[in-house]
Design brief:
By secondary structure, this protein is mainly beta. The protein folds into 2 domains: about 60 residues, no CATH class; about 160 residues, Beta Complex (Ferric Hydroxamate Uptake Protein, Chain A, domain 1), CATH 2.170.130. The chain is about 5% helix and about 45% strand. The chain starts with a strand and ends with a strand. The N terminus and C terminus are likely disordered. InterPro entries: Plug_dom (IPR012910), Plug_dom_sf (IPR037066), TonB-dep_rcpt-like (IPR039426).
């Protein structure tokens, strides 16, 4: 007996190699993929196949969105697009968050929200979060949590929700510098840097990006 292990609710797919004898129903005589919903543990022989298959490979795909009782979590680190996008661009993919054409952010259909970094309020996000998140590379973020019903510990009474950004490092207190790569529409590879310096209520953030056909510098003081 071959057992397939997976997390609860995870969607598994199998890829089946089909022999020539099975071609009347699957004419391409190649491989097919079909979804299978499983529990924690399921037996291989409990799956009912409609064809006689020579071999079966079960592949687990980790979901990017995780829903919990009090929050929604987007796994930025597992999204390949995070390597080339800003945090603001990734927010467009996060459930319960809306970013319009002018980069205005809404959480749970409300423009009243707070932005936390690693579970704590962040001064540089309070005035113009869109501008800061636009200049923050997504590859510096592990996940984004959307807390739509914050409890007393968040001190967020009267707001539509909280965007809690979990970074891959120690966060944005003090100073930080992130270096990454970017790609333009012509497939050219460039480089970008994003840095912040925070001291009390004073914060300066800056971004530098370069591609072979364009040199773009953007500096923001908040």
């Amino acid at each position: 007996m071959v057992k397939v292990l997976a997390s609860i609710g995870m969607l598994l797919t199998y890829t089946a190699a089909i022999s020539a004898a099975n071609t009347p129903r699957w004419a391409d005589n190649g491989t097919k993929t079909a979804p299978i919903e499983v529990t924690d543990t399921m037996a291989y022989d409990s799956i009912k196949w409609s064809e006689n298959l020579d071999a079966v490979t079960v592949v687990a795909k980790k979901p990017l969105v995780k829903s919990e009782l009090d929050k929604m979590t987007y796994d930025v680190e597992s999204d390949p697009e995070a390597q080339a996008n800003s945090v603001l661009e990734m927010l467009r993919k996060v459930p319960m968050v809306t970013v319009d054409g002018q980069d205005n952010i809404m959480v749970n259909n409300s423009s009243s929200f707070k932005v936390y970094v690693n579970g704590k309020p962040n001064n540089m996000m309070s005035n113009n979060p869109s501008e800061v998140l636009k200049n923050m590379p997504a590859n510096s973020v592990k996940k984004i949590e959307i807390i739509t019903n914050p409890g007393p510990k968040y001190d967020a009474e009267g707001v539509g929700g909280i965007i809690n950004i979990i970074t891959t490092g120690k966060g944005m207190e003090g100073y930080s510098l992130t270096v990454g790569t970017n790609y333009n529409t012509q497939g050219r590879i460039g480089a970008n840097m994003f840095g912040t310096v925070q001291s009390g209520k004073f914060t300066v953030s800056g971004r530098y990006s370069y591609t072979p056909i364009r040199d773009n510098r953007v500096f923001n003081t908040i």
